[in-house]
From TrEMBL:
<dbReference type="InterPro" id="IPR000917">
    <property type="entry name" value="Sulfatase_N"/>
</dbReference>
<feature type="domain" description="Sulfatase N-terminal">
    <location>
        <begin position="4"/>
        <end position="332"/>
    </location>
</feature>
<comment type="similarity">
    <text>Belongs to the sulfatase family.</text>
</comment>
<dbReference type="Pfam" id="PF00884">
    <property type="entry name" value="Sulfatase"/>
</dbReference>
<dbReference type="InterPro" id="IPR050738">
    <property type="entry name" value="Sulfatase"/>
</dbReference>
<protein>
    <submittedName>
        <fullName>Sulfatase-like hydrolase/transferase</fullName>
    </submittedName>
</protein>
<keyword id="KW-0378">Hydrolase</keyword>
<dbReference type="InterPro" id="IPR017850">
    <property type="entry name" value="Alkaline_phosphatase_core_sf"/>
</dbReference>
Protein backbone atom coordinates (compact mmCIF):
# COMPACT_ATOMS: atom_id res chain seq x y z
CA UNK A 1 0.00 0.00 0.00
CA UNK A 2 1.22 3.47 -0.91
CA UNK A 3 -0.15 6.97 -0.39
CA UNK A 4 0.36 10.27 -2.21
CA UNK A 5 -0.70 13.64 -0.88
CA UNK A 6 -0.75 16.54 -3.32
CA UNK A 7 -0.97 19.73 -1.30
CA UNK A 8 -1.52 23.22 -2.62
CA UNK A 9 -1.35 26.49 -0.67
CA UNK A 10 -4.12 29.13 -0.65
CA UNK A 11 -6.47 27.14 -2.87
CA UNK A 12 -9.88 28.87 -2.95
CA UNK A 13 -12.45 26.12 -3.55
CA UNK A 14 -14.81 28.55 -5.29
CA UNK A 15 -12.35 28.80 -8.19
CA UNK A 16 -12.53 25.02 -8.83
CA UNK A 17 -14.99 23.49 -11.33
CA UNK A 18 -15.94 20.60 -8.97
CA UNK A 19 -17.15 23.25 -6.52
CA UNK A 20 -19.17 25.25 -9.03
CA UNK A 21 -16.67 27.48 -10.84
CA UNK A 22 -17.69 27.73 -14.50
CA UNK A 23 -15.12 30.27 -15.72
CA UNK A 24 -11.79 28.79 -14.64
CA UNK A 25 -9.80 26.39 -16.80
CA UNK A 26 -9.05 23.41 -14.56
CA UNK A 27 -9.83 20.19 -16.45
CA UNK A 28 -7.65 18.05 -14.22
CA UNK A 29 -9.56 19.06 -11.10
CA UNK A 30 -12.72 17.94 -12.95
CA UNK A 31 -10.96 14.69 -13.78
CA UNK A 32 -9.83 14.34 -10.17
CA UNK A 33 -13.42 14.64 -8.92
CA UNK A 34 -14.39 11.82 -11.26
CA UNK A 35 -11.74 9.57 -9.68
CA UNK A 36 -12.24 10.42 -5.97
CA UNK A 37 -14.66 11.22 -3.20
CA UNK A 38 -15.16 15.00 -3.24
CA UNK A 39 -15.78 16.51 0.19
CA UNK A 40 -18.30 19.35 0.36
CA UNK A 41 -17.90 20.17 4.06
CA UNK A 42 -14.19 20.19 4.79
CA UNK A 43 -12.86 22.93 7.06
CA UNK A 44 -9.39 23.93 8.06
CA UNK A 45 -8.58 24.36 11.71
CA UNK A 46 -5.52 26.49 12.39
CA UNK A 47 -4.42 29.40 10.25
CA UNK A 48 -2.23 30.22 8.38
CA UNK A 49 0.55 28.15 6.73
CA UNK A 50 2.69 26.57 9.47
CA UNK A 51 -0.13 26.37 12.07
CA UNK A 52 -2.09 24.43 9.44
CA UNK A 53 0.85 22.12 8.82
CA UNK A 54 1.37 21.53 12.50
CA UNK A 55 -2.17 20.23 12.81
CA UNK A 56 -1.77 18.14 9.66
CA UNK A 57 1.17 16.42 11.38
CA UNK A 58 -0.36 16.15 14.84
CA UNK A 59 -4.09 15.73 14.20
CA UNK A 60 -4.73 18.45 16.78
CA UNK A 61 -5.57 22.16 16.66
CA UNK A 62 -2.63 24.54 16.96
CA UNK A 63 -4.20 28.00 17.19
CA UNK A 64 -5.51 27.93 20.76
CA UNK A 65 -2.05 27.59 22.31
CA UNK A 66 0.40 28.82 19.72
CA UNK A 67 0.83 31.21 16.80
CA UNK A 68 3.19 30.43 13.92
CA UNK A 69 5.88 28.02 15.07
CA UNK A 70 7.70 24.72 14.60
CA UNK A 71 6.65 21.28 15.70
CA UNK A 72 7.24 21.05 19.44
CA UNK A 73 9.32 18.33 21.16
CA UNK A 74 6.16 16.73 22.56
CA UNK A 75 4.25 16.78 19.25
CA UNK A 76 3.25 13.63 17.42
CA UNK A 77 4.11 13.77 13.72
CA UNK A 78 2.27 11.41 11.40
CA UNK A 79 5.15 11.22 8.85
CA UNK A 80 7.58 10.42 11.67
CA UNK A 81 5.22 7.82 13.15
CA UNK A 82 4.95 6.18 9.73
CA UNK A 83 8.73 6.25 9.37
CA UNK A 84 9.12 4.49 12.72
CA UNK A 85 6.70 1.77 11.57
CA UNK A 86 8.66 1.05 8.41
CA UNK A 87 6.72 3.24 5.99
CA UNK A 88 9.15 5.22 3.83
CA UNK A 89 8.19 8.90 3.79
CA UNK A 90 9.40 11.50 1.28
CA UNK A 91 8.63 15.22 0.97
CA UNK A 92 9.11 17.33 -2.16
CA UNK A 93 8.26 21.00 -1.73
CA UNK A 94 8.93 24.58 -2.73
CA UNK A 95 7.32 25.94 0.44
CA UNK A 96 10.07 28.23 1.70
CA UNK A 97 8.71 28.56 5.23
CA UNK A 98 9.99 25.07 6.06
CA UNK A 99 13.48 26.55 5.97
CA UNK A 100 12.68 29.54 8.19
CA UNK A 101 12.96 29.77 11.96
CA UNK A 102 9.25 29.09 12.37
CA UNK A 103 9.11 25.92 10.30
CA UNK A 104 12.45 24.22 10.67
CA UNK A 105 11.31 21.08 12.50
CA UNK A 106 8.78 19.77 9.96
CA UNK A 107 10.77 18.38 7.03
CA UNK A 108 13.22 16.31 9.14
CA UNK A 109 10.27 14.17 10.24
CA UNK A 110 10.38 12.50 6.79
CA UNK A 111 12.93 9.88 5.75
CA UNK A 112 14.07 12.13 2.92
CA UNK A 113 13.10 15.51 1.52
CA UNK A 114 13.81 17.79 -1.43
CA UNK A 115 13.42 21.57 -1.52
CA UNK A 116 13.15 23.86 -4.55
CA UNK A 117 13.97 27.51 -4.18
CA UNK A 118 12.50 30.77 -5.37
CA UNK A 119 8.87 31.10 -4.25
CA UNK A 120 7.57 34.47 -3.01
CA UNK A 121 10.50 36.31 -1.39
CA UNK A 122 12.57 33.22 -0.70
CA UNK A 123 16.11 34.43 0.12
CA UNK A 124 17.58 32.60 -2.84
CA UNK A 125 19.71 34.38 -5.45
CA UNK A 126 22.04 37.08 -4.15
CA UNK A 127 22.01 40.37 -6.06
CA UNK A 128 23.50 43.44 -4.41
CA UNK A 129 22.13 45.77 -7.08
CA UNK A 130 18.42 46.47 -6.92
CA UNK A 131 16.38 44.73 -9.61
CA UNK A 132 14.56 46.60 -12.34
CA UNK A 133 10.92 46.71 -11.22
CA UNK A 134 7.97 47.90 -13.33
CA UNK A 135 5.48 50.46 -12.14
CA UNK A 136 3.48 48.58 -9.51
CA UNK A 137 0.22 49.09 -7.65
CA UNK A 138 1.06 50.72 -4.32
CA UNK A 139 1.78 48.39 -1.43
CA UNK A 140 2.65 48.81 2.24
CA UNK A 141 4.14 45.48 3.30
CA UNK A 142 6.86 42.98 2.43
CA UNK A 143 9.16 45.42 0.64
CA UNK A 144 12.24 43.21 1.16
CA UNK A 145 10.39 40.09 0.05
CA UNK A 146 9.07 41.86 -3.04
CA UNK A 147 12.57 43.03 -3.96
CA UNK A 148 13.86 39.46 -3.63
CA UNK A 149 10.93 38.11 -5.61
CA UNK A 150 11.85 40.26 -8.62
CA UNK A 151 15.37 38.86 -8.42
CA UNK A 152 14.09 35.30 -8.17
CA UNK A 153 11.83 35.71 -11.19
CA UNK A 154 14.88 36.33 -13.39
CA UNK A 155 15.74 32.65 -12.89
CA UNK A 156 12.27 31.40 -13.86
CA UNK A 157 12.04 32.60 -17.43
CA UNK A 158 10.69 29.22 -18.54
CA UNK A 159 7.99 27.16 -16.88
CA UNK A 160 10.47 24.29 -16.61
CA UNK A 161 12.54 26.44 -14.25
CA UNK A 162 9.66 27.36 -11.92
CA UNK A 163 9.83 25.85 -8.41
CA UNK A 164 6.31 24.45 -8.77
CA UNK A 165 7.39 22.56 -11.91
CA UNK A 166 10.58 21.34 -10.26
CA UNK A 167 8.62 20.16 -7.21
CA UNK A 168 6.28 18.06 -9.35
CA UNK A 169 9.22 16.82 -11.44
CA UNK A 170 10.76 15.49 -8.22
CA UNK A 171 7.48 13.96 -7.09
CA UNK A 172 7.06 12.15 -10.40
CA UNK A 173 10.67 10.95 -10.19
CA UNK A 174 9.97 9.42 -6.79
CA UNK A 175 6.83 7.75 -8.14
CA UNK A 176 8.65 6.27 -11.14
CA UNK A 177 11.59 5.15 -9.03
CA UNK A 178 9.49 3.48 -6.35
CA UNK A 179 6.22 2.45 -7.99
CA UNK A 180 7.10 -1.25 -7.64
CA UNK A 181 7.90 -0.87 -3.93
CA UNK A 182 5.45 -1.16 -1.05
CA UNK A 183 4.66 0.95 2.03
CA UNK A 184 5.65 4.49 1.19
CA UNK A 185 4.11 7.93 1.57
CA UNK A 186 4.91 10.80 -0.79
CA UNK A 187 3.95 14.40 -0.07
CA UNK A 188 4.08 16.65 -3.15
CA UNK A 189 3.60 20.15 -1.81
CA UNK A 190 3.68 23.39 -3.75
CA UNK A 191 3.41 26.94 -2.44
CA UNK A 192 1.13 27.85 -5.37
CA UNK A 193 -1.40 29.33 -5.93
CA UNK A 194 -0.22 31.50 -3.02
CA UNK A 195 0.65 35.06 -3.92
CA UNK A 196 2.50 36.43 -5.82
CA UNK A 197 0.36 35.15 -8.67
CA UNK A 198 3.23 34.65 -11.09
CA UNK A 199 2.69 32.29 -14.02
CA UNK A 200 3.29 32.22 -17.76
CA UNK A 201 1.64 33.52 -20.91
CA UNK A 202 0.04 30.17 -21.78
CA UNK A 203 -1.98 30.43 -18.58
CA UNK A 204 -2.53 34.19 -18.53
CA UNK A 205 -4.08 34.16 -22.00
CA UNK A 206 -6.82 31.87 -20.67
CA UNK A 207 -8.12 34.88 -18.72
CA UNK A 208 -7.88 37.95 -20.98
CA UNK A 209 -8.80 41.37 -19.66
CA UNK A 210 -8.41 44.96 -20.81
CA UNK A 211 -6.25 45.99 -17.87
CA UNK A 212 -3.44 48.39 -18.80
CA UNK A 213 -2.52 49.77 -15.38
CA UNK A 214 0.49 49.20 -13.13
CA UNK A 215 1.79 45.69 -12.47
CA UNK A 216 -0.40 43.89 -9.93
CA UNK A 217 -0.07 40.25 -8.89
CA UNK A 218 0.66 40.56 -5.15
CA UNK A 219 -1.89 42.30 -2.89
CA UNK A 220 -1.35 43.48 0.65
CA UNK A 221 -3.54 41.68 3.19
CA UNK A 222 -5.95 44.57 3.66
CA UNK A 223 -9.32 45.99 2.78
CA UNK A 224 -9.82 46.46 -0.95
CA UNK A 225 -9.06 50.01 -2.07
CA UNK A 226 -8.14 49.19 -5.67
CA UNK A 227 -10.28 49.90 -8.73
CA UNK A 228 -12.74 47.32 -10.10
CA UNK A 229 -10.40 46.81 -13.07
CA UNK A 230 -7.50 46.05 -10.73
CA UNK A 231 -9.65 43.64 -8.71
CA UNK A 232 -10.68 41.76 -11.86
CA UNK A 233 -7.09 41.69 -13.09
CA UNK A 234 -5.75 40.25 -9.85
CA UNK A 235 -8.44 37.55 -9.79
CA UNK A 236 -7.45 36.67 -13.34
CA UNK A 237 -3.80 36.41 -12.31
CA UNK A 238 -4.79 34.06 -9.48
CA UNK A 239 -6.87 31.98 -11.91
CA UNK A 240 -3.92 31.76 -14.31
CA UNK A 241 -1.69 30.40 -11.56
CA UNK A 242 -4.48 28.01 -10.57
CA UNK A 243 -4.51 26.69 -14.15
CA UNK A 244 -0.78 26.12 -13.90
CA UNK A 245 -1.42 24.12 -10.71
CA UNK A 246 -4.08 22.17 -12.59
CA UNK A 247 -1.52 21.17 -15.20
CA UNK A 248 0.85 19.93 -12.47
CA UNK A 249 -1.98 17.94 -10.88
CA UNK A 250 -2.71 16.37 -14.27
CA UNK A 251 0.87 15.12 -14.48
CA UNK A 252 0.35 13.15 -11.24
CA UNK A 253 -2.94 11.68 -12.47
CA UNK A 254 -1.32 10.74 -15.81
CA UNK A 255 1.51 8.90 -14.09
CA UNK A 256 -0.85 7.05 -11.76
CA UNK A 257 -2.69 5.89 -14.90
CA UNK A 258 0.53 4.94 -16.69
CA UNK A 259 1.94 2.99 -13.74
CA UNK A 260 -1.42 1.41 -12.80
CA UNK A 261 -1.18 2.76 -9.27
CA UNK A 262 -4.88 3.21 -8.53
CA UNK A 263 -5.39 -0.33 -7.22
CA UNK A 264 -3.16 0.08 -4.17
CA UNK A 265 -2.35 3.79 -3.78
CA UNK A 266 -4.33 6.30 -1.77
CA UNK A 267 -4.47 9.80 -3.25
CA UNK A 268 -5.27 12.90 -1.17
CA UNK A 269 -5.48 16.34 -2.80
CA UNK A 270 -5.84 19.16 -0.31
CA UNK A 271 -4.81 22.64 0.75
CA UNK A 272 -3.88 24.37 3.99
CA UNK A 273 -6.37 27.23 3.58
CA UNK A 274 -8.07 29.42 1.00
CA UNK A 275 -7.74 33.13 0.25
CA UNK A 276 -9.91 36.21 -0.05
CA UNK A 277 -9.65 37.69 -3.53
CA UNK A 278 -11.84 40.73 -3.08
CA UNK A 279 -14.74 38.87 -1.46
CA UNK A 280 -16.05 40.71 1.60
CA UNK A 281 -13.94 43.65 0.36
CA UNK A 282 -10.71 42.09 1.63
CA UNK A 283 -7.53 40.66 0.18
CA UNK A 284 -5.68 37.70 1.64
CA UNK A 285 -6.26 36.27 5.09
CA UNK A 286 -5.54 36.75 8.82
CA UNK A 287 -7.17 40.12 9.58
CA UNK A 288 -10.92 39.54 9.03
CA UNK A 289 -12.83 36.56 10.43
CA UNK A 290 -12.34 33.41 8.40
CA UNK A 291 -15.12 33.47 5.87
CA UNK A 292 -15.82 30.41 3.76
CA UNK A 293 -13.45 31.52 0.98
CA UNK A 294 -10.62 31.21 3.48
CA UNK A 295 -11.44 28.22 5.68
CA UNK A 296 -14.02 26.04 3.83
CA UNK A 297 -11.62 23.90 1.83
CA UNK A 298 -11.52 21.59 -1.16
CA UNK A 299 -10.66 17.97 -0.39
CA UNK A 300 -10.48 14.98 -2.72
CA UNK A 301 -9.60 11.44 -1.57
CA UNK A 302 -9.21 8.17 -3.42
CA UNK A 303 -9.07 5.13 -1.12
CA UNK A 304 -8.29 1.94 -3.06
CA UNK A 305 -10.01 -0.14 -0.38
CA UNK A 306 -13.51 1.30 -0.94
CA UNK A 307 -12.87 2.51 -4.51
CA UNK A 308 -15.38 5.34 -4.20
CA UNK A 309 -15.11 7.57 -7.26
CA UNK A 310 -17.24 10.37 -8.65
CA UNK A 311 -19.25 10.74 -5.44
CA UNK A 312 -19.79 13.65 -3.03
CA UNK A 313 -19.42 13.50 0.73
CA UNK A 314 -21.36 15.91 2.93
CA UNK A 315 -20.09 14.95 6.40
CA UNK A 316 -18.15 17.60 8.29
CA UNK A 317 -14.43 16.82 8.25
CA UNK A 318 -11.34 18.88 9.03
CA UNK A 319 -7.66 18.99 8.20
CA UNK A 320 -6.91 17.50 11.64
CA UNK A 321 -8.37 14.29 10.17
CA UNK A 322 -5.65 13.89 7.54
CA UNK A 323 -2.94 12.55 9.87
CA UNK A 324 -5.24 9.90 11.43
CA UNK A 325 -6.45 8.94 7.94
CA UNK A 326 -2.90 8.31 6.74
CA UNK A 327 -1.97 6.40 9.88
CA UNK A 328 -5.04 4.17 9.65
CA UNK A 329 -4.38 3.45 5.98
CA UNK A 330 -0.98 1.99 6.90
CA UNK A 331 -2.26 0.21 10.01
CA UNK A 332 -0.64 2.55 12.51
CA UNK A 333 -2.65 3.56 15.58
CA UNK A 334 -3.19 7.27 16.19
CA UNK A 335 -2.11 8.62 19.55
CA UNK A 336 -4.52 9.62 22.34
CA UNK A 337 -3.51 13.26 21.81
CA UNK A 338 -4.94 13.35 18.28
CA UNK A 339 -8.35 15.00 18.01
CA UNK A 340 -8.76 14.10 14.33
CA UNK A 341 -10.51 10.94 13.14
CA UNK A 342 -9.66 8.51 10.29
CA UNK A 343 -11.92 9.13 7.28
CA UNK A 344 -12.06 5.56 5.94
CA UNK A 345 -15.79 5.12 6.63
CA UNK A 346 -16.61 8.69 5.63
CA UNK A 347 -14.99 8.08 2.26
CA UNK A 348 -16.78 4.75 1.90
CA UNK A 349 -20.26 5.68 3.11
CA UNK A 350 -20.31 9.34 4.24
CA UNK A 351 -20.26 8.22 7.88
CA UNK A 352 -20.11 11.31 10.14
CA UNK A 353 -17.07 11.76 12.37
CA UNK A 354 -17.99 14.91 14.35
CA UNK A 355 -20.86 17.18 15.34
CA UNK A 356 -18.84 20.37 15.04
CA UNK A 357 -15.36 21.70 14.37
CA UNK A 358 -13.27 24.64 15.54
CA UNK A 359 -11.17 26.96 13.42
CA UNK A 360 -9.23 30.16 13.95
CA UNK A 361 -6.02 32.11 14.17
CA UNK A 362 -4.01 32.68 17.32
CA UNK A 363 -5.42 35.84 18.89
CA UNK A 364 -8.20 36.11 16.31
CA UNK A 365 -11.82 35.04 16.24
CA UNK A 366 -12.48 31.55 17.53
CA UNK A 367 -15.06 29.98 15.25
CA UNK A 368 -17.18 26.87 15.28
CA UNK A 369 -19.28 25.22 12.58
CA UNK A 370 -21.65 22.29 12.53
CA UNK A 371 -21.55 22.22 8.74
CA UNK A 372 -24.57 24.49 8.31
CA UNK A 373 -24.13 27.30 10.80
CA UNK A 374 -20.91 29.19 11.40
CA UNK A 375 -20.32 31.15 14.61
CA UNK A 376 -17.32 33.48 14.75
CA UNK A 377 -16.75 34.67 18.30
CA UNK A 378 -14.63 37.78 18.86
CA UNK A 379 -12.95 38.72 22.09
CA UNK A 380 -15.48 40.00 24.60
CA UNK A 381 -13.73 43.31 25.31
CA UNK A 382 -11.54 45.68 23.30
CA UNK A 383 -7.81 45.07 23.64
CA UNK A 384 -7.94 41.32 22.93
CA UNK A 385 -6.53 40.31 26.30
CA UNK A 386 -5.41 38.14 27.97
CA UNK A 387 -3.38 36.22 25.42
CA UNK A 388 -0.48 33.84 25.96
CA UNK A 389 1.57 31.41 23.88
CA UNK A 390 2.79 28.07 25.17
CA UNK A 391 5.96 26.76 23.60
CA UNK A 392 9.37 25.17 24.00
CA UNK A 393 10.37 26.40 20.54
CA UNK A 394 10.36 30.22 20.85
CA UNK A 395 10.64 31.14 17.20
CA UNK A 396 8.45 33.24 14.96
CA UNK A 397 7.66 33.12 11.25
CA UNK A 398 10.91 34.87 10.35
CA UNK A 399 12.92 35.15 13.50
CA UNK A 400 13.18 34.34 17.19
CA UNK A 401 11.21 35.57 20.16
CA UNK A 402 12.59 38.91 21.35
CA UNK A 403 14.59 38.78 24.56
CA UNK A 404 12.09 41.26 26.05
CA UNK A 405 9.29 38.74 25.56
CA UNK A 406 11.29 35.82 26.93
CA UNK A 407 12.13 37.76 30.09
CA UNK A 408 8.42 37.48 30.93
CA UNK A 409 8.29 33.72 30.35
CA UNK A 410 7.16 31.44 33.15
CA UNK A 411 6.98 27.67 33.34
CA UNK A 412 3.41 26.50 32.80
CA UNK A 413 1.58 23.43 34.05
CA UNK A 414 1.67 20.67 31.40
CA UNK A 415 -1.31 20.33 29.08
CA UNK A 416 -2.96 16.99 28.43
CA UNK A 417 -1.13 16.68 25.09
CA UNK A 418 2.39 17.74 26.18
CA UNK A 419 3.17 14.29 27.62
CA UNK A 420 3.92 15.60 31.10
CA UNK A 421 6.22 18.31 29.76
CA UNK A 422 5.89 21.87 31.02
CA UNK A 423 6.03 24.63 28.43
CA UNK A 424 7.01 28.28 28.58
CA UNK A 425 4.09 30.63 28.95
CA UNK A 426 4.97 33.87 27.18
CA UNK A 427 2.89 36.98 26.44
CA UNK A 428 0.95 36.60 23.20
CA UNK A 429 0.42 39.31 20.62
CA UNK A 430 -1.98 39.51 17.68
CA UNK A 431 -1.84 41.71 14.61
CA UNK A 432 -5.53 42.61 14.81
CA UNK A 433 -8.20 43.08 17.44
CA UNK A 434 -11.18 40.88 16.54
CA UNK A 435 -13.39 43.00 18.81
CA UNK A 436 -13.51 45.60 16.02
CA UNK A 437 -15.24 43.13 13.69
CA UNK A 438 -17.68 41.89 16.32
CA UNK A 439 -19.04 38.38 16.66
CA UNK A 440 -20.82 36.89 13.65
CA UNK A 441 -23.36 34.15 13.07
CA UNK A 442 -24.27 32.76 9.63
CA UNK A 443 -26.60 30.20 8.10
CA UNK A 444 -24.70 28.82 5.11
CA UNK A 445 -27.78 27.07 3.77
CA UNK A 446 -29.71 30.30 3.20
CA UNK A 447 -26.68 32.61 2.97
CA UNK A 448 -23.74 30.73 1.41
CA UNK A 449 -21.89 33.97 0.60
CA UNK A 450 -22.13 35.13 4.24
CA UNK A 451 -23.58 38.53 3.44
CA UNK A 452 -26.34 38.59 6.05
CA UNK A 453 -25.18 37.87 9.61
CA UNK A 454 -27.88 36.73 12.01
CA UNK A 455 -28.99 37.82 15.44
CA UNK A 456 -30.47 34.68 16.97
CA UNK A 457 -29.94 34.23 20.70
CA UNK A 458 -31.05 30.60 20.80
CA UNK A 459 -28.81 29.61 17.90
CA UNK A 460 -25.87 31.56 19.31
CA UNK A 461 -26.32 29.81 22.65
CA UNK A 462 -26.22 26.40 20.97
CA UNK A 463 -23.15 27.28 18.91
CA UNK A 464 -21.35 28.82 21.91
CA UNK A 465 -22.01 25.64 23.90
CA UNK A 466 -20.52 23.57 21.05
CA UNK A 467 -17.51 25.89 21.11
CA UNK A 468 -16.99 25.43 24.84
CA UNK A 469 -17.28 21.67 24.44
CA UNK A 470 -14.53 21.68 21.80
CA UNK A 471 -12.35 24.09 23.77
CA UNK A 472 -12.46 21.71 26.71
CA UNK A 473 -11.71 18.70 24.52
CA UNK A 474 -8.70 20.60 23.15
CA UNK A 475 -7.49 21.54 26.65
CA UNK A 476 -7.57 25.23 25.71
CA UNK A 477 -5.60 27.51 28.05
CA UNK A 478 -7.53 29.62 30.58
CA UNK A 479 -6.67 32.85 28.76
CA UNK A 480 -8.81 31.83 25.82
CA UNK A 481 -11.95 31.42 27.95
CA UNK A 482 -11.37 34.79 29.59
CA UNK A 483 -10.57 36.56 26.31
CA UNK A 484 -13.72 35.18 24.70
CA UNK A 485 -15.98 35.94 27.68
CA UNK A 486 -16.72 32.27 28.29
CA UNK A 487 -15.84 32.10 31.98
CA UNK A 488 -18.30 31.40 34.76
CA UNK A 489 -21.16 28.99 35.23
CA UNK A 490 -24.50 29.04 33.51
CA UNK A 491 -25.37 29.93 29.91
CA UNK A 492 -22.60 31.51 27.84
CA UNK A 493 -22.45 35.27 27.42
CA UNK A 494 -23.97 36.19 24.06
CA UNK A 495 -21.91 38.59 21.98
CA UNK A 496 -23.58 38.94 18.57
CA UNK A 497 -26.29 41.35 19.70
CA UNK A 498 -23.92 43.08 22.13
CA UNK A 499 -21.33 43.71 19.40
CA UNK A 500 -23.68 44.54 16.54
CA UNK A 501 -22.37 48.10 16.27
CA UNK A 502 -18.92 46.73 15.44
CA UNK A 503 -20.40 44.38 12.84
CA UNK A 504 -22.06 47.33 11.10
CA UNK A 505 -18.97 49.55 11.36
CA UNK A 506 -16.73 46.84 9.90
CA UNK A 507 -18.89 46.81 6.77
CA UNK A 508 -18.07 50.47 6.05
CA UNK A 509 -15.45 51.41 3.43
CA UNK A 510 -11.90 51.62 4.73
CA UNK A 511 -10.60 55.07 5.78
CA UNK A 512 -8.69 56.99 3.11
CA UNK A 513 -6.13 59.77 3.16
CA UNK A 514 -8.66 62.40 2.10
CA UNK A 515 -10.71 61.70 5.24
CA UNK A 516 -8.07 63.41 7.42
CA UNK A 517 -6.53 66.89 7.73
CA UNK A 518 -3.71 67.81 5.36
CA UNK A 519 -0.75 68.61 7.63
CA UNK A 520 3.01 68.20 7.89
CA UNK A 521 2.55 65.25 10.24
CA UNK A 522 -0.47 63.08 9.70
CA UNK A 523 -1.80 59.56 9.88
CA UNK A 524 -0.20 59.16 6.44
CA UNK A 525 3.31 59.77 7.86
CA UNK A 526 5.42 56.65 8.57
CA UNK A 527 5.38 55.73 12.25
CA UNK A 528 9.18 55.82 12.35
CA UNK A 529 9.12 59.50 11.39
CA UNK A 530 6.41 60.27 13.94
CA UNK A 531 8.22 58.76 16.90
CA UNK A 532 11.39 60.59 15.87
CA UNK A 533 9.66 63.82 16.94
CA UNK A 534 8.98 63.92 20.71
CA UNK A 535 5.73 65.88 20.39
CA UNK A 536 4.34 63.46 17.80
CA UNK A 537 5.46 60.44 19.83
CA UNK A 538 3.60 61.89 22.81
CA UNK A 539 0.44 62.09 20.70
CA UNK A 540 0.79 58.45 19.72
CA UNK A 541 1.41 57.34 23.30
CA UNK A 542 -1.59 59.31 24.53
CA UNK A 543 -3.91 57.55 22.08
CA UNK A 544 -2.32 54.14 21.54
CA UNK A 545 -1.05 53.36 25.04
CA UNK A 546 0.46 49.87 25.40
CA UNK A 547 0.46 49.38 21.63
CA UNK A 548 3.50 51.66 21.49
CA UNK A 549 5.49 49.17 23.57
CA UNK A 550 4.34 46.10 21.69
CA UNK A 551 6.95 43.76 20.14
CA UNK A 552 5.09 44.40 16.88
CA UNK A 553 6.16 48.06 16.82
CA UNK A 554 9.45 47.51 14.89
CA UNK A 555 7.48 45.94 12.04
CA UNK A 556 5.21 48.99 11.96
CA UNK A 557 7.92 51.67 11.71
CA UNK A 558 7.94 51.88 7.89
CA UNK A 559 4.13 52.04 7.78
CA UNK A 560 1.76 54.91 8.38
CA UNK A 561 -1.03 54.71 10.93
CA UNK A 562 -3.50 54.73 8.05
CA UNK A 563 -1.78 51.74 6.46
CA UNK A 564 -1.76 49.92 9.79
CA UNK A 565 -5.46 50.63 10.27
CA UNK A 566 -6.24 49.16 6.84
CA UNK A 567 -3.90 46.18 7.19
CA UNK A 568 -4.62 45.27 10.81
CA UNK A 569 -8.25 46.26 11.17
CA UNK A 570 -9.24 46.99 14.73
CA UNK A 571 -5.74 47.55 16.02
CA UNK A 572 -6.39 51.30 15.70
CA UNK A 573 -10.07 52.25 15.84
CA UNK A 574 -11.46 54.77 13.34
CA UNK A 575 -12.25 57.29 16.06
CA UNK A 576 -8.74 56.91 17.47
CA UNK A 577 -7.30 57.52 14.02
CA UNK A 578 -9.37 60.71 13.68
CA UNK A 579 -8.28 61.93 17.12
CA UNK A 580 -4.60 61.30 16.35
CA UNK A 581 -4.92 63.09 13.01
CA UNK A 582 -6.46 66.14 14.70
CA UNK A 583 -3.74 66.28 17.37
CA UNK A 584 -0.93 65.86 14.83
CA UNK A 585 -2.37 68.65 12.70
CA UNK A 586 -1.98 71.03 15.65
CA UNK A 587 1.75 70.40 16.00
Amino acid sequence: MRSIMVMFDSLNRRFLPPYGASWTHAPNFRRLAERTATFDTCYGGSMPCMPARREMHTGRYNFLHRAWGPLEPFDDSAPEMLKREGVYTHLVTDHQHYWGDGGATYHPRFNTFEFFRGQEGDEWKGHVADPVVPDTVAYATNADLRRQDWINRRYMAEEADHPQTLTFDAGLHFMRTNHAEDRWFLQIETFDPHEPFFSYEDYRKLYPDDYDGPHFDWPDYKQVTETPAQVEHLRNRYAALLSMCDRSLGRVLDLMDELAMWDDTMLIVCTDHGLLLGEHDWWGKNAPPFYDETIHLPLFVWDPRSRVAGERRGSLVQTIDLAPTLLEFFGVDRTPDMRGVPLRETIAADTPVRRAGLFGLFGGHVSVTDGRYVYMRACAEPGNRPLAEYTLMPTLMRGRFPAETLREAVLATPFSFTKGVSTLRVPGHAYTDPYAFGSLLYDLESDPDQRNPLIDDALETRMAELMVELLRASDAPPEQYERLGLTGDGPPRLLVREQWAQVEAAALPSPRRDDFPDARLSVDTPVGELIAEPAAEAVLRAHLGPLMDSPLLPEALPLSLLEIANLAYGLIARETLRAIAADLARL
